[in-house]
Amino acid sequence: MAEGNKETPEIIGFACSFCSFKASEMAGSLRMKYPEGVKLIEVPCSSRVDPAFIIKALMEGADGVFVAGCHPGDCHFIKGNYYTRRKIAALKEMFRAFSIDEKLRLFWVSASEARRFVDKVTDMYNNIKETKR
Amino acid sequence: MRIGIFICHCGHNIKSTVDIEGLKGYFKGLNNIACVEDYPFMCSEPGQALIKSSIERFGLGRVIIAACTKALHQDMFKNLVRDAGLNPFLLRRVSIREHCSWTGEDIEKNTSKAIRLIRAGIYSSAHYEPLEEKQVEVNKSALILGGGISGMSAAAFLARAGIEVYLVEKEKELGGHVRHLEDVWPVRERGKDIIERMTEELKTLNNVHIFTSSRLVSFGGSFGNYEAVIENSGGEIKVIVGGVIVAIGFTAFDPSIKPELQYGIDKRVITTLEFEEKMHELPIKEGSRVAILHCIGSRDEIIGRPYCSRICCINAIKTGEAIKNRFKDSYVESFYMDVRSHPRGGEEFYEDTQEKGLLFTRANISEIIPEQGGLVLRGEDTLLGMPFEREFDLVVLSIGMSPPKDNQEIAGLLKITLDKDRFFLEAHPKLRPYDTALKGIFIAGTCSGPKDMEESINHGRASAVKLYGLLNLGYAFIEPFVAYVDPKRCSGCRMCEQACVAKAIKFDEGLHIVRVEEAACMGCGLCNATCPSSAIALKGYKDTIIDDEISALTEAV
Ligand SMILES: Cc1cc2nc3c(=O)[nH]c(=O)nc-3n(C[C@H](O)[C@H](O)[C@H](O)COP(=O)(O)OP(=O)(O)OC[C@H]3O[C@@H](n4cnc5c(N)ncnc54)[C@H](O)[C@@H]3O)c2cc1C
Ligand code: SF4
Ligand code: SF4
């Protein structure tokens, strides 16, 4: 298990290729800034995210993990994000028992919402940085 | 395995906030790295040649290109790798521009982020497999949604190029808004005449099928073979089309959501669109006092329309000129925020109408008060900083463009995206302004944001050219990212079958395992995340690929 740097949180985000990953590309093109600790893994659909990935990332030292998908009703694969919502809710419930539920977030960001993407990841980053102290 | 890493400076875009030499130094010493190259522009011809020759020279098994995001230049890089004799699915793009050099300012932090991102590319691509893209035939036909000037322009181009065109218009007649314009600037023709000429032209082309009073009710399939169902009073018609152009236009802004303007309450307040439709029936005569208000439904954060509609300044000037031309002794005053008469000849037009006696006052109008005698405009002159009240007989609101009414419906059917103002979103505002994120689906005209006719026609034609380029090839490759089953691991629990939205998973009663119907699989990966036995995997995104990407990102540098 890698030692997480205490000063700067490392956050891994799983981003849906049709929406939030596109929003992150747009955020970059618009030169919007967000903390370097945030790193993305592109997945075709948020429903590809196996809860095991999230657990693995946290076990290996990530300070937080988020899953970002299309808004409910907008899934390119019709209803993949509904499965994601259920899976993450169950996982969060489990994390609550260990008081680590703050380390996991799920958010919906459409392809055009670059600003929302940046706000969401920055907020999560700051929140984790705060609780690490 | 021999891995080649190619780091792009992108001019100064990457180089100025990422230490390229530092990156090179880090990766040069690592196992399996056969070469680490950098170049000012990897997408340029010499950049491409560098990659190609390195693949050949070092016998590379993996190519890692650390540059812009993969939404850009992907086909070009894939072809290049293919030409060099390597399977194009052994290429990995790492975005160190959109996801690194542009999002952070600190060189040290960016460099360490870039190292992790590139490493994630190396680790995960180690599990890549050579994949074969399936070649499918592409139908040389197109569906055009919306028969306004942009859709009609696209239809005419495609049909003349030999493409079978299905033009679907929801109203009784073609033409959209242009049909209602009495005086089209700068050509000074009736919109109806322009539309009728274009309609005649379309009718002479026997490969254009025009469906009026019709709408799209269902949509599926993939590029080359999209399936669309069109509905009208005659019933439903199913067509197979290679690609689609969405050209459903705009909705004229409805000023009644701003009650202080009295629109819809007092008949003496009208819009520029109504002025176009009935300019000869209006109660204006010599001596009449007319006010024209710019930017109604534009540049207005409060009502969610922060953008400039681009046409309303010219429309306002055009309206003022029309009144002045007919009634020399009328008093016409235009109230503006800024005059943006941007198209060619617009500035001269603005000057000319001023000479004709049209008055321009820079002002904020706070309300219109209906009185017996006239309409009192209350506002502030923003140049003098003085409040004023002035009385008029008629007020014309120069309305802007709102997103099309059916934006949500069409976006939902086609699975394409809307932008923050609810117009259709282009794949890239500068580099791919006609494309959507979906192959073969393009946008044209005002449905992607305010445009005048010239811009709408150009946008329509450009989308048609782009679509023609794709259709004319006659074939396309389908992404090979589909699910596959390992029969030795599958327990036949059928959990994936229940989860799969596309119904692509079939249970084999005899063998008691499942199999995937590739043609139906959408490639979402839900089954992969569902299977308790790790027996089903999505090509390109299988567990080992993502697992190692996670490890690379969390491992200390
Ligand atoms: C008051 C006013 C004056 C103007 N004057 C000028 C001028 O002088 N010069 C100039 O260059 N420009 C002018 N314009 C701008 C011009 O009207 C637009 O540039 C032009 O109409 C854009 O064409 P379009 O095809 O994009 O959209 P539209 O004209 O809006 O056409 C869209 C078409 O799509 C159809 N449609 C909508 N939804 C669906 C659906 N779900 N399925 C099928 N069909 C659908 C509509 O019925 C319509 O026919 C003016 C605009 C206004 C409001
Ligand atoms: S979920 Fe896994 S084990 Fe169960 S049927 Fe599907 S592939 Fe086989
Ligand atoms: S990847 Fe998605 S569409 Fe394909 S078989 Fe799996 S669940 Fe079904």
List the helices and strands and how they pair.
The complex is a heterodimer of chains A (133) and B (557).
Chain A: E1 11-16, H1 20-29, E2 38-43, H2 51-59, E3 64-69, H3 80-97, E4 104-108, H4 114-132
Parallel strand pairs in A: 1-2, 1-3, 3-4
Chain B: E1 3-8, H1 20-28, E2 33-39, H2 45-58, E3 62-67, H3 74-83, E4 91-95, H4 97-101, H5 107-125, E5 134-137, E6 141-145, H6 149-160, E7 164-168, H7 191-204, E8 208-211, E9 215-222, E10 225-232, E11 235-241, E12 243-246, E13 251-252, E14 269-271, H8 272-278, E15 289-296, H9 312-326, E16 331-336, H10 346-355, E17 359-370, E18 375-381, E19 386-392, E20 394-399, E21 401-402, H11 407-414, E22 441-443, H12 453-472, E23 475-478, E24 483-485, H13 495-499, E25 505-508, E26 513-516, H14 526-530, E27 536-538, H15 543-554
Parallel strand pairs in B: 1-2, 1-3, 3-4, 6-7, 6-12, 7-8, 12-22, 14-20, 15-16, 15-20, 16-17
Antiparallel strand pairs in B: 5-23, 9-10, 10-11, 13-21, 17-18, 18-19, 24-27, 25-26
Helix pairs in contact in B: 1-5, 2-3, 5-15, 6-7, 6-12, 9-10
The complex binds flavin-adenine dinucleotide and iron/sulfur cluster (2 copies).
Descriptive keywords:
heterodimer; A: 133 residues; alpha/beta; Rossmann fold; four-stranded parallel β-sheet; 4 helices; globular; B: 557 residues; FAD/NAD(P)-binding domain; 4 domains; five-stranded parallel β-sheet; 15 helices; binds flavin-adenine dinucleotide; binds iron/sulfur cluster
Overall shape of chain B: globular
Count helical runs of chain A. 4
The largest pleated sheet of chain B is described as: 7 strands, mixed
Number of domains of chain B: 4
Write down the oligomeric state: heterodimer
The largest beta-sheet of chain A arranges its strands as 2-1-3-4
Summarize the structure.
The complex is a heterodimer of chains A (133) and B (557). By secondary structure, chain A is α/β, with parallel strands linked by helices.
Task: Describe this protein's structure.
- The complex is a heterodimer of chains A (133) and B (557).
- Chain A has 133 residues and is an alpha/beta fold.
- Chain A has one domain (11-132): 3-Layer(aba) Sandwich (Rossmann fold).
- Chain A has helices at residues 20-29, 51-59, 80-97, 114-132, and strands spanning 11-16, 38-43, 64-69, 104-108.
- Chain A has a four-stranded parallel sheet with strand order 2-1-3-4, sandwiched between helices.
- Chain A starts with 10 loop residues before the first strand and ends with a helix.
- Chain B is of the alpha/beta class.
- Chain B has four domains: 3-131, Rossmann fold, CATH 3.40.50; 141-250 and 403-475, 3-Layer(bba) Sandwich (FAD/NAD(P)-binding domain); 253-400, FAD/NAD(P)-binding domain (3-Layer(bba) Sandwich); 480-539, 2-Layer Sandwich (Alpha-Beta Plaits).
- Chain B is built from 15 helices and 27 strands.
- In chain B, the strands form eight sheets. A seven-stranded mixed sheet of chain B has the order 14-20-15-16-17-18-19. In chain B, strands 8-7-6-12-22 form a five-stranded parallel sheet, covered by helices on one side.
- In chain B, a hairpin with a 4-residue loop joins strand 17 (359-370) and strand 18.
- The two termini of chain B are 22 Å apart.
- The chains are: A alpha/beta (133), B alpha/beta (557).
- At the A-B interface, helix 1, strand 2, helix 2 and helix 3 of A face helix 4, helix 5, helix 14 and helix 15 of B.
- The structure holds flavin-adenine dinucleotide and iron/sulfur cluster (2 copies).
